[in-house]
């Protein structure tokens, strides 16, 4: 068991691990870049408070895992790159979105849930093999592009999934 506490000095943070069960609370830190690489993991990750720095890149790479992330708008990143193997993944963009952000999701055989609160501008382009795309009532569709209209900054997603399910919800 590791219990690490970090201060509010701006930093780049990199975490690499194999199979594990972990809980990360990054709220209130000053992360300039965040990289997480793991294997078969069960992870709960949260930004319950805004990141005190503008994050350039948030990179998460995982194998066959169950990953739940919340408060991602509070991460204050410019670009998020999430890549995964088989598994269940929830990316919840609740929090305070201060600027436009781009998100790339690449996944194999998996279930991916993207949570974007109602009232937040979002555009999702899906490139998939054999996948089911389920979008809630706040989303409109044109071809492979899904949009949610709101105010303020915009989240722009590109989702590349081999097979599985993608759910867009609020």
How many E-type strands?
13
Judging from the principal axes of the Cα atoms, what is the shape? globular
Percent of residues in helices: under 10%
Radius of gyration: 15 Å
Quick check: average pLDDT?
A: 95
Pairing-aware structural class of the strands and helices? mainly beta
Please state roughly what percent of the residues sit in beta strands, choosing from under 5%, 5-15%, 15-25%, 25-35%, 35-45% or over 45%.
over 45%
Low-confidence stretches: none
Helices, by number, come to 0
Describe the structure using short key phrases.
single chain, about 170 residues, mainly beta, 13-stranded mixed β-sheet, 13 strands, about 0% helix, globular
SSE layout:
Layout: E1 11-16, E2 20-25, E3 31-37, E4 41-46, E5 55-61, E6 65-70, E7 77-84, E8 87-92, E9 101-115, E10 120-135, E11 140-142, E12 145-148, E13 151-169
Parallel strand pairs: 1-3, 2-4, 3-5, 4-6, 5-7, 6-8, 7-9, 8-9, 9-13, 10-13
Antiparallel strand pairs: 10-12, 11-12
